Amino acid sequence: MERIKVLVVDDHALVREGIKKLLLEDERLEVVGEAGNGREAVELVKKRPVDVVLLDISMPDMGGVEACREIKRLRPSVAVVALTVHDQEEYCLAMLEAGAAGYVLKESSADQLVEAIVRAAKGEEYLSPRLAGKMVKWFSRAESRRGLCGLTPREKEILRLLASGLSNREIARKLYLSEKTVKNHLTSIFQKIGVSDRTQAALWAVKHGLSEL
Which residues does the UniProt record annotate as the domain Response regulatory (predicted)? Predict the structure, then answer.
């Protein structure tokens, strides 16, 4: 059976060495390279055959989210698995939206890491068990909040544009509305989602899936 070609990406050399030794103990895996940041990883993916990129998130020069997005743009067939200390839902969601097939916490066991890589190579997804439970609760809260707020389709569109950085005037022009109408909609939106200013509204939109991270 052909081995799964893995690229290890982490800004700490000792961490990379440890990961490589761990992966080489499994006969299904082959480490074909390593990189110290996202930019190096992108360049290696351009030059070498890679099945799975094992990618840290917090790195200098180019972080994991941006690198994941670029790798998937250049090589859609390459699977990306995040390996990180970050257990916050926002990081996981950002990586998944960037195209990652897996998200593994560095506290995970060797078996869990290998499972994530193997599943990603098959086109499947994997989340660390502890984080999977948190993500289910996070999405459940988001769906509940989204439904209870009762935003209309027009209000959701205005909120999405606000979170994208558009001014009231720009929103009005884009949606063929008057500025006064946009302001009235925003007043209603703020009341429904329980915020008092545009910044809070934009953050709410990001957390509830109405805007890209």
Answer: 5-121
Which residues make Cβ contacts (< 8 Å) with residue 201, sequence separation at least 6?
Answer: 159, 162, 163, 186, 189, 190, 193, 195
**How far apart are the C-alpha atoms of 174 and 166, rounded to whole Å?**
10
pLDDT of 206 reads 76
Q: What is the pLDDT of residues 35-67, one digit of tens each?
A: 999 999 999 999 999 999 999 999 988 999 999
Containing structural domain, residue 62: 4-134
Output the CA angle 143-165-201, nearest 5 degrees. 40
The total of structural domains in the chain comes to: 2
Residue type, 116: A
The span from the CA of 202 to the CA of 4, in Å, is 41
Token reading at 206: 């990001």
For the chain, the straight-line distance linking the first and the last C-alpha, in angstroms and rounded, comes to 39
